[in-house]
Every structure is written in structure tokens, then in C-alpha cells.
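subagent[fold] <- orchestrator: predict structure for attached chain, return C-alpha cells only, no commentary.
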Amino acid sequence: MKALSWPRAWERITLYLPLSLMGLLALGTWWLVRNAPEALPAQTPSAPRHEADYYMRDFAVRSFDAQGQLQSVIKGGLARHFPDTDTLEIEQVNIRSTSADGRVMTATAQRGLSNADGSEVSLLGDAVVERSAPAAPGQRDRPALRLEGQALHAWVEQERVQSREPVTLIQGGDRVTADTMDYDNKAGILKMDGNVRGLVQPRPAKGARR
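subagent[fold] -> orchestrator:
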């Protein structure tokens, strides 16, 4: 067998070298793909859970109007703030607010649910809302208006109280019960529906001495 000369052997090597390099490159690429770590599945952001992010004990939250006058004070034994709804859950809630004409409203309950600024509050469990009643022209101030129920919803700034459960209205010697109620103090409208019963004391005759 005739031996190849060195120049001819080198020529053959250089002829097959590109093919060999391409084969090695393909083999390396296959190895990398096979051994590469799998991509992590995309994580769907979870909805925020209804969990308290802070607590307050024996607290008082005060709200002021644009002129710096005190509008309302919300007190409680314990409050929990829930960021998903931006609400306060208050135990032993006690609210006092004053309207522009100086009328005072107070509200108490075993538990209260308030929005961030305290302008809207749900009163739950032995709820009581009491408000001084404006007098009619030429008359003395009337007794305070008192509302009692197990679930009262109050809009403090609008001076409105609503209940979808049985409620009792008391004013002086008058007492009225109903299944539902909507009281708008600013509009001077009281609406009571469903099994309405009442005891109304007679008013003194006009001109009679009191």
C-alpha cells in the first residue's frame, strides 16, 4: 500500500475538518438542550386575603372639616384594619359627631365596621344611635331621637341611618317599632316599613300650659 505524502494527508484533514467541527457543535447543542433546567411555570398573582395588617387598642380617630373644626370621633376597645377592603373592624365602638348647626349624634354597638375615613359605619349588636332633634319654628327643642336595633347602618356626614332588620324609634314618650327603617335627618324624612307599631303620647293642646 502506497503511503500518503504529508501535503496530501493535510489536504484531506482540512477537507473534513469543517464537517467534524459542525458535528461537534451539533452534539454540544443537543447536550445543552437536554440538560438545561426546565422553565418555572408562570405564577398567577394571588388575590389579597382578608387578613388584618395592623391593630389598635383603646384608640380614638378624629375627623376635621376644611376649616379645622372637629366633625366626628370614633372610639373603640380594639380595631383591626383589613387592607383588601380598607375597612376597620371595631369592637365596643363609640361614635360622636357634630353637624354644622351644632346638633350632636352619638352611636354605640358591640361591633362596628367603618370605612377608611369613618364617614360610613355599620353598627352590629345592641346598636344605638341617638341624635338631638331640631325644634320646629317657635317651639322648644324636642327630646332626642333614639334608634335601637341589632344592625344599623349610619352615614355620618349625610346624617342618615338605615336598618334592614327590626328597629325601635324612641322620642320622649313616643315609641315606634318596624321591620325596616330609613331615616334622613337632613331631609327630615323618616320611613318605616313592615309591621309598624307605635305608642304616641298625646300632645298638649295649643295654648295650654305645660
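orchestrator: received. Logging for downstream: The first strand starts at residue 54 and ends at 64. The mean pLDDT is 78.
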